[in-house]
Description:
Layout: E1 11-14, H1 22-52, H2 59-88, E2 92-94, H3 95-128, H4 130-136, H5 139-156, H6 158-165, E3 174-175, H7 182-188, H8 194-227, H9 233-258, H10 267-291, H11 294-311, H12 313-322
Parallel strand pairs: 1-3
Antiparallel strand pairs: 1-2
Helix pairs in contact: 1-2, 1-10, 2-3, 2-10, 3-4, 3-5, 3-6, 3-8, 8-9, 9-10, 11-12
Amino acid sequence: xxxxxxxxxxxxxxxxxxxxxxxxxxxxxxxxxxxxxxxxxxxxxxxxxxxxxxxxxxxxxxxxxxxxxxxxxxxxxxxxxxxxxxxxxxxxxxxxxxxxxxxxxxxxxxxxxxxxxxxxxxxxxxxxxxxxxxxxxxxxxxxxxxxxxxxxxxxxxxxxxxxxxxxxxxxxxxxxxxxxxxxxxxxxxxxxxxxxxxxxxxxxxxxxxxxxxxxxxxxxxxxxxxxxxxxxxxxxxxxxxxxxxxxxxxxxxxxxxxxxxxxxxxxxxxxxxxxxxxxxxxxxxxxxxxxxxxxxxxxxxxxxxxxxxxxxxxxxxxxxxxx
Length: 323
């Protein structure tokens, strides 16, 4: 118990989409479930193909496979609780679980931005420095870059748990969101959050802007290289444009969410933009980075054909005898 009539908060109620009627919530839960399953299956397929087929065991697909695994973790961090909220109405989340969810959301997001920088650098070397690419992008360097991205993400965001631990909650426990984001937590806190918000915003914006500048610089260099290419220009432009569309969603949504003071943030707008970041972006990534790629599609077809032949060998023999 707190002082006076105030009660120390031990759990939160996630009020995201509570204003919708029950039928609409159930409909949305089915839509989000379909998107979530498609996201997990699409990314898991990419990971499987990269692991089993030698044609995809090159640096670009190694990074894409790691991005796919990261997307599964990132979307699961928020989507599972969102599905529980919409389908069953169970909106409570303990204080510790809320902090853990918030920490993993920001840590995984940070890792993703670092990995996008690494992937853009890999594309720059492959397109602009093709003769030196194999010598630079060795297997050891690829593994080192991925490990560094994971370590850096959790290290940079370890401060986030420290900031959250300094907050006290003694009033309302209703979070107007579908997950434990920064803005609603700061708005609910009884503490003076001005300094904490400034520290949090500076670090988040530093990570966002630094990774955005590094990623864009690689793509600008790629663009100039493409303009000097006598051939394959159309294919390179198509690949870069799809990647830049994905980057625009990721960086644009995060900059919109975390570049304003928490007290000025519209939580309704926050929820809609957060859906882009946590649901739509992970859903689109398998199609943007892999499933539009001819080699990945060819490997997928070959894998399906091989699996079918292993499962139904007799039907293959019969069809062969007919011809």
